[in-house]
Each structure stands twice: as structure tokens, then as C-alpha cells.
Design goal:
The chain is built from 17 helices and eleven strands. Helices cover 35% and strands 13% of the residues. A six-stranded parallel sheet has the order 3-2-1-4-5-6, with helices on both faces. Strands 7-8-9 form a three-stranded antiparallel sheet, covered by helices on one side. α1 crosses α7 and α6 packs across α8. It is α/β, with parallel strands linked by helices. The structure holds oxidized coenzyme A. Oxidized coenzyme A is lined by residues 16-19, 36-38, 72-75, 96-98, 101, 104-105, 124-126, 137-140, 169. Oxidized coenzyme A (CAO) is lined by residues 16-19, 36-38, 72-75, 96-98, 101, 104-105, 124-126, 137-140, 169.
């Protein structure tokens, strides 16, 4: 079966997480992704947080599957020549170097355009071009703070808190992938002209914090936010507060204790009081008298006692595990889920069957788990292959660029590859 992106050649000049997450996704769907790495060292994640001495770390293997690895020192004259040839033959160059690094290497957008007018150059930076922080280098948590996620995450009496989800890194990579596919589509329609695509980590985080900007404007207008735990008994300032585990939409929700919470830190479910599910909720938790009680029957009547209601639901949950509770509540059509640990997710049969948790073979590590494609297609079965060893495909790629065996040996000799 032909894969959708087969024939698209991508120079993958990315490292750490934001860029690699983007190019890995494109590789899964068939693009020929050539990861360009510094000889001898490679992507820093190959050696970061290693669990097996001398073997590529999971940080690397889980973000670089389905790719090839070419080692290249782009600061040498020979290395620049290889990159020049590669640019002439490729469709997309993706990079997430610190600000200005590609220019300093001698590969400005103007120069790349001259070499290949069809080229799409896709970049991740911490902040957007022209931003007053555009010179800053940025990692995940820096972006979460700069993009509004940290100030709105956590509990009111605690400090700003970052999320475990990679809102700054992988999320930005997903935005960049959309940008690249859009630019490829545009190129097909405009006579093959490439363009520059840029995504900043701050912007990508803010895009996911859209509802918090909604809340800022509501707060400015009315002075309170009724779905936050601060309402109606607490107080608000003039900025969106941290809302703990409150539901971000119009439905009140909270994380509730289940059987065993005293010893198991994750014996919880997330419970949502969806307005039109009020009657089934009352039936499910054994409180049918609340269905028509004016003190409970509308969302606004419930608002000032919402935590007492959650307390009643917790009392009902006290003799049920999180899985038992969800199995009961699902019959009443109540939006809820167990709080899943990474261990439970790793062993989840449904996730294994769908390929979202994939077991992959690696030449040196053996088998490891990774997160497979979260996007499912009717006409594509995504196959995840192990990440490449450093420089595993160097000679193969050089041959496709027209280098003879003698020339390849000379490039190795000169330490350019
Ligand atoms: N051959 C020769 N030189 C190479 C090379 C290669 N194959 N690959 C990279 N380099 C050089 C770069 O040209 C750069 O050199 P100069 O600074 O001398 O011009 C140098 O390596 C360092 O690159 P860098 O600035 O990208 O790396 P860093 O470790 O100092 O910073 C990071 C890392 C992530 C903070 C920075 O790259 C960055 O801010 N990137 C943009 C935002 C981003 O993507 N952050 C997310 C990372 S995931 O958490």
C-alpha cells in the first residue's frame, strides 16, 4: 500500500522534542525523513536520561521512529556541500535550533530559496519573529509559563504549575506538522513555490489556552467565573485564577476519591455534572429525591453547594474502585473516566489493539513501548519502526546524493560526516 506522504523528502534538522515530534508524525505517514545529526554526538536526547548504558535513551527512541540518520558537520565546507545537495533534492527542511543558528550556518531562507524554490522551511522557535523575547532559547516548561498555561494550572493556594503533557514541545510540533502539510498543499496549487512556515512554542501553548483568554474577558466584564471553585464562596482578583480540577467548560466537574484512595494516589475518577444528565446522576448515586428538588434541579441552584454534591458522590464511591465506579456510571450516560496511571495505560488492551501503545524493536535496546499514531485512518495502517542508530544511513543517503565510494570515504576522513 502506498503511504500518503510517500515521495516527500524531509531534511530533519530537529532535536530534543518539539521538532522531532513533528517529523516523526510525518515519517509515520510515509515521508522520507532524514535526521541530520552532528557526528559523534547526535541529538542530545540519545544520551539524556539513559536507562541502559551506551544505548540510545527512550527519550530519543520514542521521538525518532521511522526516520533515517545522517551524520553531518554542517560547519565544515564539505558538510555544507552535502547539505546543499540535500536541499536541492528535498521538499521540506524542518529545524528547531536556537534563534539564528541556521542563518549562522550559512543557510538563510533567501539562500535556501535560491537553491530550491520549491523548498518549505519549517521552524520552531520559543517566541515568534519580531517578539520582544525572540532571542531567547526555550524549553518545554519555559513555554508553558510564557504561553499562559502555568498561571492558570494548579490550585489557588499553590504556585503556578506546569502540566505533564508536553504543551510546549510536542504540541508545537503538531502545529508545525499542520503548517507543513498546508504549505505542501499550497505548493501543489501555486506552481511549486515553497514557503517559510514558523510556529512559536509560546503561541502554540496559548492556542491551547484559548478558553483561559475567554475567561479573562468574562472576568473583566462580570468580575467572577461561576465554574471556578472560587465561586461563590471565595474571591477573584483581576486575573484568571488557577482552577484546580474544575471543568473548563460549562459543566462542573472534579476529581473524586474512590475506594482505596488512602493508599493508592490514583484511586480517583473524574466526574462531570453535565446539566441534562442531572436525573441519571441522581438515580446512579441513590439520590432520586434531588431530581425534582428546586434546591438542586437547576445548574444555578446547585452552584453554591457543588462541593457538597461532590462530597455526596464521594460517599457513594467509597466502596467502589475507580473501574467499578465507571462501569456503573457509564450505564447512566455520565461523562466520567478513571484517573489512569502510566502503568495502567502501558498495559491497556484497547490501546495495544488500536496501536496507540505500540511495541517496537530497536537494534540495540530490544523491545520498547512507544505512543503510536493517535490519528487513525481507514486506508492507512501506521507501522512504527525502531529509531535509527547514529549515522546508520549516512552512506546510503550520500549515495543517493551522487557521492562515489571514494568521495564518501573522503568525507568520513575529513570528519564532515
Ligand atoms: N553540525 C554542526 N553544527 C551543528 C549541527 C550540525 N549537524 N547541529 C547543530 N549545530 C550547531 C548549531 O549551528 C548551533 O551553533 P551556533 O550557535 O554556534 O550557531 C549549535 O549547534 C547549538 O544549537 P542550538 O542553539 O539549537 O542548541 P542549544 O543546545 O544551545 O539549545 C534549545 C537547545 C532547544 C534551547 C534551542 O535549540 C532552542 O531554543 N530551540 C528552539 C526552541 C525549541 O525547539 N525548543 C524545544 C526543545 S524541546 O524541549
Amino acid at each position: 500500500m502506498t503511504k500518503p506522504l510517500e515521495g516527500i523528502k524531509i531534511i530533519d534538522f530537529t532535536h530534543v522534542q518539539a521538532g522531532p515530534a513533528c517529523t516523526q508524525l510525518l515519517a509515520w505517514y510515509g515521508a522520507d525523513v532524514i535526521k541530520v545529526e552532528r557526528p559523534g554526538a547526535g541529538d542530545v536526547t540519545r544520551s539524556q536520561l539513559r536507562d541502559i548504558p551506551g544505548v540510545d535513551a527512550l527519550y530519543f527512541t520514542m521521538l525518532n521512529s521511522n526516520k533515517k540518520s545522517l551524520t553531518l558537520d554542517t560547519k565544515t565546507a564539505e558538510g555544507k556541500e552535502v547539505l546543499t545537495r540535500l536541499i536541492k533534492q528535498s521538499d521540506v527542511l524542518v529545524e528547531n535550533f536556537g534563534p539564528g543558528a541556521l542563518d549562522r550556518m550559512g543557510f538563510t531562507w533567501e539562500h535556501i530559496k535560491e537553491l530550491n524554490p520549491g523548498m518549505i522551511v519549517a521552524s520552531v522557535k520559543g517566541f515568534s519573529d519580531g517578539h520582544h523575547y525572540e532571542d531567547l532559547k526555550v524549553y518545554e516548561n519555559v513555554a508553558q509559563c510564557a504561553g499562559g498555561a502555568a498561571s492558570t494550572t494548579g490550585f489557588d493556594d499553590g504556585p503556578p504549575t506546569v502540566s505533564a503533557a508536553a504543551l510546549g514541545d510536542s504540541n508545537t510540533g503538531m502545529h508545525l506538522a499542520i503548517g507543513i502539510l498546508t504549505a505542501l498543499h499550497a505548493r501543489n496549487r501555486n506552481g511549486g513555490k515553497g514557503q517559510k512556515v514558523a510556529v512559536s512554542m509560546q503561541d502554540s501553548v496559548l492556542n491551547l489556552c484559548r478558553v483561559k483568554l475567554r475567561d479573562q474577558q468574562r472576568l473583566d466584564r462580570v468580575g467572577y467565573l461561576e465554574e471556578y471553585p472560587q465561586y461563590p464562596h471565595g474571591s477573584f482578583t483581576d486575573v484568571v485564577p488557577r482552577g484546580g480540577n474544575a471543568g473548563g467548560g460549562g459543566q462542573p466537574g472534579w476529581v473524586l476519591k474512590c475506594k482505596g484512595w488512602e493508599t493508592d494516589k490514583n484511586a480517583y475518577i473524574y466526574f462531570t455534572i453535565q446539566g441534562h444528565a442531572w436525573a441519571p446522576i441522581c438515580r446512579a448515586i441513590g439520590k432520586p429525591e434531588w431530581i425534582d428538588d428546586p434546591a438542586y434541579m437547576t445548574a444555578s441552584a446547585r452552584q453554591d453547594k457543588i462541593f457538597d454534591i461532590f462530597g455526596t458522590i464521594e460517599a457513594w464511591l467509597a466502596d467502589k474502585t475507580k473501574f467499578e465506579a465507571v462501569n456503573i456510571l457509564r450505564k447512566f450516560d455520565i461523562p466520567c473516566a478513571p484517573v489512569m496511571t502510566m502503568k495502567e495505560l502501558a498495559n491497556d488492551e484497547s490501546l495495544r489493539a488500536s496501536g496507540t501503545i505500540a511495541e517496537v524493536d530497536h537494534k540495540e535496546r530490544g523491545k520498547y513501548l512507544t505512543v503510536g499514531s493517535p490519528i487513525k485512518f481507514s486506508d492507512l495502517k501506521v507501522e512504527i519502526t525502531g529509531s535509527p542508530l547514529l549515522g546508520e544511513h549516512t552512506n546510503e543517503v550520500l549515495e543517493t546524493l551522487g557521492y562515489s565510494s571514494r568521495e564518501i570515504a573522503a568525507l568520513h576522513e575529513a570528519k564532515a560526516v
